């Protein structure tokens, strides 16, 4: 059947159980299912939501459309974990079933308050002529996982001068004990803007103004999923500008996920102090809508959607779409943002297999398709690595990295190019930790100085990796099978 609007927005309680059961069988037969990434059981996954620590467990929800691998009527599915690497699926947590979220329980965040978890999200509502109205709504989740929505929205409408492209609240508790909400918005003149609300209580949130980030008037027509966190003392603004000019910051993906680091925040004037120019959060093809929060243990953690708006990948042929990234810990070192999978990720490692690099071109068979490759190359040692047809060319003389997925199985998203290029420090040793999982790989260079995420859809199962270098003695590599 065609995924027309009626089908996409059909209320959850009108779907027969056979729809999900049928999809589940299709999904189970997919050769591209993942071994240690969060993936939808059926249908589509998009943004991470409500990332938090509550009731002794990590809580990480995601945007879901469980009835097909397409964007439709969105809900929140809850995942929870004690270690950030093994996740339990706790099922549907927020279903779009009130007049304030009837066309979608859109993205949002979570804040533990007393013995409950408060969820704040965007209620997407469409009228008869399909015009959007955005409410910012709230719900309490208790320790048993029961969710009770507030009777009335927290924010009824966008502020004067802004459109109903108004969503993705990041709710935090400010140092002075006030509630603060950061939201993505759009001016009537179609400029993307981050908006700030504050309140003494959740029921008196009021608009304070727009957050000045240094790119006012140059951030495109919309900002989605804004997050402001502090990373080792540095305010870090993570956001998704849509329609931003390439002259502001270069990017290759249909929509980028970007980051601006600053020296401080002036909360009187709502200004990021000494903001850097925006940079891509991820150098690869597939990261969007990342959500960060600072955990009670002091770590600032990040989860990303691996998938992009308006992009369809081959997994959808099998009744599912997209996944979440590994949980990344953020740090600020040598004036740069670093992202690296949390230390717990090492516990997924099986027995180490050292790869003996002997000649110019080595093929290693029996790798399986889900593992971590840990590689070190001395300075000035060019090398090429090929994993499942994804070719990584590393020039450690100039520091140039080229990632090419043009020969990696079923092509998709080719309108946005099949290669990505970025730079590491020249004439320096390089480390690469490649987390490979059947149809996704997360490549971390120099312990997270640069990250490059790549989806790929092999036509035949992957069991080999190739390494090519003129200086075999200068390259060291170890392979660890990874399983959750
Ligand atoms: C980003 C986004 C958000 C929105 C959600 C809806 O991918 O468009 O802005 O809240 O997805 O699923």
Automatic annotation (TrEMBL):
UniProt xrefs under Gene3D superfamilies: Exo-inulinase, domain 1, Glycosyl hydrolase domain, family 43
A biological-process GO annotation: sucrose metabolic process
Recorded GO CC terms: cytoplasm
Primary localisation category: cytoplasm
Domain Glycosyl hydrolase family 32 C-terminal: 390-468
Record Pfam families: Glyco_hydro_32C, Glyco_hydro_32N
The protein's Enzyme Commission number: 3.2.1.26
Glycosyl hydrolase family 32 N-terminal domain ranges (all copies): 37-341
The keyword Cytoplasm is annotated on this UniProt entry: yes
Pathway(s) per entry: Glycan biosynthesis; sucrose metabolism
Keyword annotations of the record: Carbohydrate metabolism, Cytoplasm, Glycosidase, Hydrolase
SUPFAM superfamilies in UniProt: Arabinanase/levansucrase/invertase, Concanavalin A-like lectins/glucanases
Family classification: Belongs to the glycosyl hydrolase 32 family.
General function of this protein: Enables the bacterium to metabolize sucrose as a sole carbon source.
Listed name of the protein: Sucrose-6-phosphate hydrolase
Native source organism of the sequence: Schleiferilactobacillus shenzhenensis LY-73
Gene of this entry: scrB
